[in-house]
Design a protein that fits this description.
single chain; about 150 residues; alpha+beta; 5-stranded antiparallel sheet; 6 helices; globular
Length: about 150
């Protein structure tokens, strides 16, 4: 099941609030001034990324939490695994980042993506209901991420 619509009819903030209050799990795809995805688990945001936002690994390198070589090694390990895991889990298992460092980076990454898409007034959205597995302990609630 999915819901979809146009951004000039329903704002992204309203769509995200609907997902949050309904405690839904799935992926919200947004196509506006760019493309973005927001992943929800039980109504809580667990990941977000957009084509106009630095990816998590790039953010970690830019903030000197990891070096470019470590990022490449983590990506290679991620690709070699039979079951896909998110980059953050791979970096944690490698001991390349602490839970606190990853948590701060995820928070910034999600906030940057949400701030970007909140400004989009034209385009479309689609929410595909389905299972989304977060990195345990890194779920975020909308109240922590959305500006008042």
């Amino acid at each position: 099941m999915s819901i979809s619509g146009r951004l000039d009819d329903v704002s992204i903030a309203e769509v995200m609030q609907f997902i949050h209050l309904g405690k839904r799990s799935g992926v919200l795809y947004v196509d506006g001034a760019g493309k973005a995805e927001v992943h929800f688990n039980g109504g809580r945001i667990v990941a977000a990324h957009g084509e106009r936002i630095h990816r998590l690994g790039e953010l970690l390198v830019r903030n000197r939490i990891i070096d470019p070589h470590t990022l490449l090694e983590a990506i290679e390990r991620q690709r070699a695994e039979p079951e896909h895991r998110v980059l953050g889990e791979v970096l944690l298992d490698m001991g390349a980042v602490s839970r606190e460092e990853l948590g701060r980076a995820l928070q910034v990454h999600i906030q940057d993506t949400i701030q970007e898409i909140l400004g989009w007034r034209l385009g479309t959205f689609r929410f595909e209901i389905g299972e989304v597995r977060p990195i345990r302990g890194f779920e975020r609630s909308l109240g922590q991420l959305l500006p008042s």
